[in-house]
Amino acid sequence: MRRAMVWGLTLCAAVPALSTAKPVPVEATVYRSPTCGCCKKWVEHIQTNGFAVKDIVKDDMAAVKRELGVPENLASCHTAVIGGYRVEGHVPAADIRQLLEAKAPLLGLSVPGMPAGTPGMEMGGRKDAYSVIGFGPGAGVQTVHKYPAE
After folding, report:
1. CA angle, corner 44, sides to 81 and 27, nearest 5?
2. Which of 46, 45, 71 is nearest to 134 (CA)?
3. 91, 100, 105, 147: which sits with the fewest CB atoms below 10 Å from its CB?
4. Hey, which bits of 35-99 come out as E strands?
């Protein structure tokens, strides 16, 4: 009886410690050009938001995008693979998390181009309007989230 009570108290003491543990980071493989500074800032953004980044520097980013199936019209400066999805450009971490949680039937997300004010493209107080676009599989695209200009 005494032994069971000791184990019970030990287990109860461990439960709060388990509940305060940080969640396991989501792995992200990021492909970026060696000359792009905003890519490094976006990597910092997703790391700050709980992603564990494997940072791969490539000279031929067009080949990476083709290999991963990112449509040319949705291209940006860097490409990531997170949870099997392609993440193209300055997609906010919150939108990536929503994609992973929803297990959406998409190939990935993109913020085409390099809009000012997106994660990694901060320019003082300037924030352009932009959309997060869901794409594939196939030729389909859809707007997932619209961010207004500020």
Report:
1. 35
2. 71
3. 105
4. 51-57, 79-82, 85-89
